[in-house]
Specification:
Layout (H helix, E strand, L loop, with lengths): L13 E2 L2 E2 L5 E3 L10 H11 L1 E4 L5 H17 L18 H4 L3 H9 L2 H8 L1 H11 L3 E3 L4 E5 L5 E4 L2 H4 L7 E6 L10 E4 L6 H4 L21 H7 L4 E3 L7 E4 L5 E3 L10 E10 L38
Parallel strand pairs: 3-10
Antiparallel strand pairs: 1-2, 4-11, 5-13, 6-13, 7-12, 8-11, 8-13, 9-10, 9-12
The structure holds 2-oxoglutaric acid.
């Protein structure tokens, strides 16, 4: 008799419309108890390349940010009413209603409730603790609202954010509950040690070297199988964050929510305040990776657009 594994998650995780088998899945390790021991916390980040922490931001701040963003998408006809449920309508009037995709997305990304959530005291406190010194977030924020079918290909963040130095950390935050069927973040276990991928990346700046791509051509399932490793994720809940460094391979599962719920999350980069900054990501109108501002983000496209992002 063959033993059957108890499913780790209550729903399937999908990569390129293929179900990820149980033996290729794992749960992100919960490091919340280590908040009381910052040295152990930092050691954990160094060792695994990520920290998964619970209860970091306040539910009321998340709810306010979620409502703020979804109200803007609803104005574009992209959500069914009531908008706060985040159910995709199947259409978009964004291009008829806004004169500039980039300006629209910048205004959504700079909403006061969203900024209070992502750049407020709770986040400063935890990032100061993780870095062991005063920390500073990028002003430029990646807001991601993803409909069914959307996923993110595997990549390291190094080619995007290390122009000044590599002491940069990504904070990924679900804005609301994001169960695995909505296609949350997935981290490749042990990927900090993939020297064959990391060594050739040294010095690679995706905005300067157009001959290369930051996203791997191999999909997450095939890579995890080939390297006998696992894709780590969670049924993310309100208040969770994941912090990871520039040498941690990650992507996002495919959103296959049958209710057509839009997956809402954001990712923001943080660094020690004392270090140099990459001016592309700071200031009143940050240019972003390519200089095109918020217009370069997938989020700037109407929700009906084809979603398969870096
Ligand atoms: O949320 C996603 O789909 C991907 C996030 C990501 O790539 C990042 O935070 O660097």
């Amino acid at each position: 008799m063959t033993a059957t594994l108890t499913p780790l998650f209550n729903r399937d995780c999908l990569v390129n419309s293929k179900v990820v088998p149980q033996e290729r899945l794992g749960e992100l390790k919960d490091s919340t108890p280590l908040l009381a021991d910052p040295i152990a916390l930092r050691k954990q980040l160094q060792q695994d390349g990520y920290l998964y922490l619970k209860g970091i931001v306040k539910p009321q701040h998340i709810e306010a940010a979620r409502q703020e963003v979804f109200a803007r998408l609803a104005e574009m006809g992209e959500l069914k009413e009531p908008a706060h449920e985040g159910i995709f309508s199947g259409v978009s009037h964004r291009d008829q209603r806004v004169s500039s995709r980039g300006e629209f997305w910048q205004s959504v990304s700079e909403g006061p409730h969203l900024r209070h959530l992502t750049h407020g005291e709770d986040m400063h406190r935890v990032m100061d603790l993780i870095m062991g010194e005063k920390s500073r977030p990028h002003d430029y924020l990646f807001l991601r609202a993803g409909v069914q079918g959307r996923s993110t290909g595997l990549h390291y963040d190094y080619p995007f954010f290390t122009r000044a130095h590599d002491q940069v950390y990504t904070v990924w935050m679900p804005i609301g509950n994001v169960p695995v069927e909505q296609g949350p973040l997935a981290i490749v276990e042990g990927s900090k040690k993939f020297k064959d991928l990391i060594d050739p990346m040294n010095g690679f700046d995706v905005a300067l070297d157009k001959s290369r791509k930051a996203t791997l051509s191999q999909d997450a399932l095939s890579l995890a199988t080939e390297r006998n490793t696992r894709l780590l994720s969670r049924n993310f809940e309100i208040g969770d964050i994941v912090v990871f460094g520039m040498y941690t391979l990650h992507g996002a599962f495919q959103n296959h929510c049958p209710l057509q719920k839009v997956r809402l999350s954001c990712d923001v980069r943080w660094q020690p305040a004392a270090l140099d900054v990459d001016a592309r990501y700071f200031g009143k109108n940050p240019g972003g990776t390519t200089g095109a501002g918020y217009g370069e983000l997938q989020g700037a496209k109407p929700l009906t657009d084809d979603w398969h992002v870096r």
